[in-house]
Amino acid sequence: MQKKEKSFGIQMLSVQPDTKPKGCAGCNRKIKDRYLLKALDKYWHEDCLKCACCDCRLGEVGSTLYTKANLILCRRDYLRLFGVTGNCAACSKLIPAFEMVMRAKDNVYHLDCFACQLCNQSPDVT
């Protein structure tokens, strides 16, 4: 049976000067910084909570992290590794799971492929 993927929130907390320092789940050292992160019911230095693939600092890229197969991942890498891909309704080419798309009814399109069928004009999506 395969484990389900999960997304978890990341909280940035201010360390209170009169409290006992908490241990970091990443490096096992005491957190003496002004701020710490709380995720997965553990405490982390801001530099220690990173994506297992791209090494980005998860506290900087959003308020959510993803776990699957014992990996801690940012959204982009989670979708790249485990996301569902599909085909564009206009060009039939593969659309990576992390790519921005346009949807119309049950159809999915690359942004560059999405256009009016009558006049072939694309909407301004920027």
From TrEMBL:
InterPro entries: LMO_RBTN_TF, Znf_LIM. The keyword Zinc applies. Keywords: LIM domain, Metal-binding, Repeat, Zinc. One of its GO terms (biological process) is positive regulation of transcription by RNA polymerase II. Residues 22-84, 86-126 form the LIM zinc-binding domain. SUPFAM superfamilies: Glucocorticoid receptor-like (DNA-binding domain) (SSF57716). One of its GO terms (molecular function) is DNA-binding transcription factor binding. SMART domains: LIM (SM00132). This is LIM domain only protein 3. It comes from Ursus americanus (American black bear).
